[in-house]
Structures are given as C-alpha cells and as structure tokens.
Design a protein that fits this description.
Layout lengths: L14 E6 L2 H9 L1 H4 L4 E4 L9 E4 L1 H4 L9 H7 L4 E3 L3 H15 L6 E5 L2 E5 L9 H16 L3 E6 L2 H8 L7 E3 L5 H5 L12 H9 L5 H6 L2 H8 L1 H10 L11 H4 L2 E11 L2 H21 L2 E11 L5 E12 L2 H15 L6 E13 L15 H18 L7 H4 L5 H10 L1 E2 L5
C-alpha cells in the first residue's frame, strides 16, 4: 500500500473511489457550521426517543461511542449532548450534485454508486496531473467549495479503489496496487473483502477458509460447487482482480426508490399495505416525472433489531403505474413477511428502468378500454400535486378506516428517505 507522497504507475487503468465522510452530518455542518461544527451530531429517521433510529453520525459522535443503528434513546444515554437532526434529502441531493459536478470536471467516466460515493476512471486524465495530484485536488476543491470531507482510494480497478477508500477516514487518501494485495489484505478476515457479506463469510468459515489469503489459495472447483459462479469471482477478488468498467451511464439506468423509517413499529398487515401504497405512489410519481418505465419492483423490510430483507419481482410488461407497483409490493410483502412480525422500516424500489419512448407497452386484453381513462386520471393527479403539493391528492387506500391514519400518513410521507435520487 503506497503512501500519499508516492505516485501511481502510469501503466494500466487508474480508478478512483470517491467516498464522502459521514455525508449527511457533514452536509448539515457545512450548511450551518455555527450550530454543528465539531459537535457530536446524528441524523435519525425520527427524533422520537423510543422509535428513532440513528441513520448516520458525525465523527465527533463516533468518538463518544455512537453507532449507526442505535435507537435515539440509546445514543442519548451514551452521549447526552448529542444533537439529533431530522433528515433533509433535498439538501443532501444539492450537495451530492455539487461534488459530483467537480468529479466530472476531471473525467466524463464518473459512475455514481449512491448519493455520497462514485467511481472515476481517470486513465485518460493525465492533462490534470498525476493520479495523486488529481485525488488531492479533488479533496481540496470539495473541501473549499462544499466544505465536505471525503476519502479517496486510488487503484487499478474498482474493487481495490473501493477497499482503499475505506482504509483511512476521514480525509484519507490511499493507494492500493495489485502488488500490495498479499501484504495488505491476505491476513484479513474474508468479510473485509468488498462484496463478501457475513453470511458468505460464515459459510467460508465452515469450509475452514478464514482469511482473504486462504480464499486466494482455495480450490476454485470447491468454491464453485459451494457458491456457483460467485465462488470463482471470490477467488479472483482475493487476488485483487476486477475487470468491471466504470459506467458513466449508470446515472441514467439507476433505480428509483423510497424507504421510510416508521414512527412506530407496524405489525398489522393492513397498516403495512397503506404505507406501501404511499411508497408506491411516490416512486411511481418520480418514475413518471422522469419519463421512465420499470420492469422490476423490489421491497425492503427491516425489523426493530435491524435485520433487513429485500425481495423483488419482475413484471410481465414495464410500468409506471402506482396501482401496479402497489399490488406487486403488497404481494411481495405478504409472501415474505410473517403475519404479526414488527416492521421498523419499509421501502419500495423500482429497477430495470427504460425510457418511456423506447418501451413497448402491451395493453391488457381485459382492461385496454380502461387504460386511457386511468392514464388521464393519473396525469390530472400529477398536475394537481405539481401545483398544490404532494398532499393535495390522497387516495382512500392511504387513509383507511382509522381517522387518525391521515395524520400518520402525513408523518410517514414527511419521513420518506429518498436515497436513490441523485
């Protein structure tokens, strides 16, 4: 692993992984330094003590023992002076667009991964200096223009660039070459390797493969028998090999999703359906606004203990209909979530997106006469919301039989997390 004062070899690809540090908290600190600079802060989906969950926290808070996933009550018990901030995703997207625009000034090959990170292929960017000079300039400009800290990994591929950026935070700058892999990574546990989760690591452990070095030396046929083609990928990754390209078109093909951390644990299936209707409504509306169609519907469900599942379904034909998205989301929820289990977070994500004008939509044989009327109604509702706000039109299904559901509905709409929109 190279020190920052050494340069990167000129041969081969040069990939940067740009990762913003404690992004949400850093954004609030940059926006209102007099309130938050240097103080222990945390962003929570709800500031209510019993139900609120810490989404992220500042490094000052981490130094006092605060961690993502804690309840607000737990965090306040550890750090009584912790400042809890409600999320502001319009603000986060503004800052995200800001640092991404700086990245694109060095190369057109920028692949956003989430609201706070991206890959950059700077192989052809020698006009701006050496790889380390480019990385240092990036850090400096983002700090000066947006007041945000970031860590950057420099490597010959995306896998090693991602792992390098994780090695030093905040404000880290790390080079990880192929020749460094054995010395730097091989003595580490398998789940340190990006792309290997705890369940896979546990399965590797049962095969007596405990370190990345042992994974690199493992029999490939054994890995393929146990894990399929993923086993072959793991062995290559353990050697630091990754041929995936930085895809500049990722922003156009990204998913669209909403998740919401609920102000109360939901155990009643009808309540969950009502929340899924809100989420389906918001995701489908964003889809229509961007003139896109989706072929896959995915749901996310999280328990109070932070256990999370995702389940998806591919549609017969692409859609941007709230009704279709909602019914698919409910079907997935009913099939995969045991009745009566509490849910702390719910989410709906639309994937495999295509442009409306490029998508052939097959009319339903039994419903084709109704479709123009439904499309006209949807357009009218969209126009009303554009003019009067999101709560201008609510369907009966969002309200249910309980009069207080309207109040809860507005709260849930207000806490929706819009992480996927950049």
């Amino acid at each position: 692993m190279a020190d920052a004062h050494k340069d990167y070899p000129a041969k081969g690809r040069v990939i940067l992984h740009l990762d913003m540090n404690a992004f949400y908290c850093s954004v609030h600190e940059a926006e209102e330094p007099e309130k938050y600079k240097g103080k222990p802060t945390a962003v929570a989906g709800s500031v209510e003590l019993r139900k609120g969950i810490i989404v992220t926290c500042s490094y000052a808070a981490r130094g006092k023992g605060i961690k993502t996933g804690m309840t607000v009550r737990q965090a306040m018990r550890i750090c009584p002076d912790l400042i809890i901030i409600q999320p502001d995703f319009d603000l986060y997207r503004k800052f995200s667009r800001g640092f991404m625009s700086i990245a694109r000034q060095f190369t057109p090959l920028v692949e956003p991964i989430s609201i706070d990170e991206c890959y950059m292929d700077i192989t052809g960017s020698k006009i701006f200096g050496s790889p380390l000079e480019i990385a240092k300039t990036l850090q400096q400009r983002i700090a000066e223009e947006w007041m945000l800290p970031c860590s950057i990994g420099v490597a010959p591929n995306k896998l090693l660039a991602k792992m390098a950026s994780d090695m030093k935070k905040p404000n880290g700058l790390t080079v990880l070459r192929l020749r460094d892999v054995q010395a730097v990574l091989w003595d580490k546990p398998c789940d340190v390797l990006h792309g290997i989760g705890k369940k896979t690591a546990d399965k590797l452990e049962r095969l007596r493969i405990r370190t990345i070095g042992q994974l690199a030396a493992a029999d490939e046929e054994l890995l393929i028998r146990q894990f399929g083609t993923y086993g072959s990928w793991m062995k290559s990754a353990a050697h630091g090999i990754d041929h995936s390209e930085v895809r500049a078109d990722r922003e156009q093909s990204k998913s669209i999703g909403h998740t919401t951390t609920l102000p109360y644990d939901v155990t009643v299936r009808e309540d969950a359906h009502r929340i899924l209707l809100n989420l389906a409504d918001q995701t489908a509306r964003r889809l229509r606004r961007q003139k896109l169609m989706a072929s896959t519907v995915q749901i996310t469900v999280r328990k109070p203990d932070m256990t999370t599942i995702t389940r998806s379904s591919t549609l017969r034909v692409p859609t941007h209909s709230t009704d279709v998205v909602y019914h698919q989301a409910c079907r997935l929820f009913d099939e995969h979530w045991p009745a009566g289990d509490p849910a702390r977070l719910l989410g709906v994500t639309l994937q495999n997106l295509t442009a409306e004008e490029e998508t052939a939509v097959q009319l339903d044989l039994f419903d084709y006469k109704e479709q123009p009327r439904k499309e006209a109604l949807t357009k009218t509702m969209d126009v009303l919301r554009d003019k009067f706000g999101e709560n201008a039109v609510l369907t009966a299904g969002m309200l249910g039989d309980d009069p207080s559901a309207l109040i809860r509905n507005k709260k849930l709409r207000g806490t929706s997390l819009q992480k996927d929109e950049i």
